[in-house]
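Entry:
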Amino acid sequence: MSKSPIYKSFVYAFKGISFAFKERNFKLHVLSMCLAIAAGFYFELTKTDWCLVLLCIGGVMSLEVMNTAIEKTVDRISLERHPELGKIKDLSAAAVLIFSLVALVIGVLIFVPYVNETFFENVRHCH
């Protein structure tokens, strides 16, 4: 049995990303990603801050893709409502929510000092 060329793995992965873009929640995460990246350039984040922001973005986006894959798989198993299958979907969504909330806290910890320094530094000196 021969293995398919490595480039096919990338083709399949990009097909998955393309499919993810059809999902509403993924689009919302993409919007958040764009805002975070734009803010990062605007505030000229340090390399360490960039690494943290990018890890958060990658984590949220990856979990959202996995959540979608799990939901689609569960939907294929049964079209009928089943409590245990519902729990699987809920747990998968919870993983995205937990990581998203942690990413939000990390984002606040990173960006608030930049916002304060940029927009409120002059206010302190006026008084």
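The first helix runs from residue 6 to 20.
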